[in-house]
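Hello K.,

You asked for the raw outputs rather than the summary table, so here they are, unedited. I folded two proteins back to back in the same session to keep the settings identical. This is the first:
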Amino acid sequence: MYQFPYADTMESSPQLARERERQVFERCLELFRAAEEKGAGSREAIEALTFCQRVWATLLEDLASPENALPKELRAEIISIGLWAVRESESIRLGKSKDFKPLIEVTTALYEGLK
């Protein structure tokens, strides 16, 4: 799969970028639901946590970039959500939590917001 800088995608087609974001969050939801069903120590949980942490790492890097065109306030709010999601994922990975529901709820809200 080819990877293009996010800014290039946004310049060429904001609708395409938004659809890709939706697809990524949809995939996170699929993985989180499978992980919830199989349990926090399962292969599905590891896959879900790894994938979604990579997604948030990419988004956080982009949001922190001075070239990001989103308003500062919105960027700050999304960064807060992303940092929370990374901490929550790490808590599950370390065995401090087994609850995927908060991650599913927040990811669902983000997914729905991109429709």
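The second followed immediately with the same parameters:
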Amino acid sequence: MRVISGSAKGRRLKSLPGPGTRPITDRVKTALFDILGPAVAGARVLDLFAGTGSVGIEALSRGAAEAVFVDKDPRAIRVLRENLQGTGLADRARVVRADVFAFLRSGPPHPFDLIYIAPPQYRGWWRRTLELLDERPGWLAPEGTAVVQIHPREFEEVPLRHLRLADRRDYGSTHLLFYRRHEGEPPPASGP
């Protein structure tokens, strides 16, 4: 893994071995940031189930104003801190060792422009995370995007009130889902 673009371009990132993390390939990360485009510059980023921090670090390298990384695994936190130091981006980062669900229930300090969700596979945690964000829509800025990284076989429709699925992309065994704020449809016109 490496930083693809920006101020830390080319810097190698340490990885965390084992089944508990869901690493993003350079190809998928490039595609993700091509889709997000200039919206990353100046953004507030929340990297949930952060693991090694690859996505949040890429966002910082590309000019995000800040990134908050949340993970409860002490090994992941250690590697994440090393990656932030190695890329020189630690000054705009906050690392939180916490359970993601407890963290989200605590309420947002401010809205985030980009929320990245990449939990361990096949546990349904991506859906639970989306449901928590939907219950507390203040986590996502009005024009923000929540991106979910899952295996395509994990996908299912999730009934949501404040978020809607705006786009989905497949890259082999990686499925990216893009959710945006949506305050509901206007009521239907009444008949005569």
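The first helix runs from residue 26 to 36.

Happy to rerun anything if the numbers look odd on your end.

Regards,
P.
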